[in-house]
Every structure is written in C-alpha cells, then in structure tokens.
Amino acid sequence: MRVFVxxxxxxxxxxxxxxxxEAATKVVYGYxxxxxxGHLRVxxxxxxxxxxxxxxxxxxxxxPGATEVRLDYTGTAFGRLTVACDLKETEGRVAVDAKGLGxxxxxxxxxxxxxxxxxxxxxxxxxxTKAVKVNEILVDxxxxxxxxxxxxxxxxxxxxxxxxxxxxxxLGYSYTTAFYRVTKRCGDGWLTGRPVNADRNGLGEKACxxxxxxxxxxxxxxxxxxxxxxxxxxxxxxxxxxVYGDA
Length: 247
Hints:
Number of helices: 3
Strand order of the largest sheet: 5-2-1-8-9-6-7
Number of strands: 16
Helix content: 10-25%
Structural class: mainly beta
Strand content: 35-45%
Order of helices and strands: HEEEEEEEHEEEEEEEHEE
Radius of gyration: 23 Å
Oligomer: single chain
C-alpha cells in the first residue's frame, strides 16, 4: 500500500509540470511585420496551396474575426526562398521544397533583416508565444491597395493606428513608404507653419521619407488627419499624405 501511495504522489507531482494543451505547436500563415527586437506580429490567414508549372505559391485570404498573434522568433529555424541567406531578392532562382516553403536554412538574424525591410509572407510554426520554425512563402497574388482619409496615431516606430469610416486598423510601414508633407521642411512638426506644399485638396506634395513620418508622429500625442494608400489585407501602408484641412 505504501508503494502505491508513493507512486501516486510521484505521478501527481510530475503532472503539475506537464505541458498544458495550449502549448501545443500551432501553424499560422500570413503577412508578418517586425514588432520590436526579436518579435513579429501576424494576423492569421487561410492558406490554399497553389501548384502551377514551375511555380509553387499560396493564396492567402482573410479569416473573419482572426486576431493578431505576436511571437518571439529569437530561437527559430528560418527557411528562405533565396538560394543564400543574405540575398535581398531571389535573383530569379527560388529555393523551395515540394510544399512551396523556403528551404535555405538561415538564422533568426536573417529573419530580423528581412522584417526590417518590410512585410513578409510567412508560414510559422509556434508554441505558446515563441516561433519554432519560420518559412518564407510566395503568394499567388499580392492584394491591391486602396486610398482613404482618416486619422492616424503612432503605436511604435513602424506601426500606427488608422481610423477611417468608424473602423480602426493597425498598419505597419517600412523604409519604402512614401510620406508627402504640406510643411516647408520634412522635419517640421505636424502642420507646422504655413501649408506651402499643399495642393488644392490640402494634400501634402513635398516628398519625404518613412523616417520623417516616424519622427513627426513621435511629437504628436493625439490622432492627426491623413490620407493613406494602404492594404488592409496585408496590414501595410504604401503612401501617407499630411492633410491641411483648410485648403
């Protein structure tokens, strides 16, 4: 009897440290954005494997009600589409397996570099809040952009909250995002001085950079009016126009 009691107690003790069901490995497909050092964020998409002659890709579609997943990728295995880890482009040669997943074995630092360049379509295996395997994928068709006016508010250096027609959308941007200002200089505060670079509709015409957008948004504590060309499916911004409302 004493042996049985001891064995039961040991089993209960071990069960207290068992991995919970929610820590099981999951898979998510989507357009990933960098979200702080060693982290990415992605809104899950449905993924359909598209197999064509000499071209393997995925068709990603919106999942109604899907919520964003934020993951630590510092310990992940990263499979790239390029034939070498440090290439910016495929240069006409793609390294994928039979499932269309990037198969060039790379390091988390290479993933950080890619996310630093902007959005990446990825397949991610993760446990809890940590990515364990990440593969680049090709998408069969990049979603179209749309243009709308609304207010923007800074979330971090590469992310903002866009509110338009009663909807709030979290959007990312990269160094390729264009920023057009109504002010005299790119480094001026939002709507500082006379709108010397506004067109008839009050839209900025002075070409500035994504870095200028980041700097100016840091200086404002409230939402400001802007026009965006963006893709809600990708969760990213192509262009931002500062808007002078009295033009």
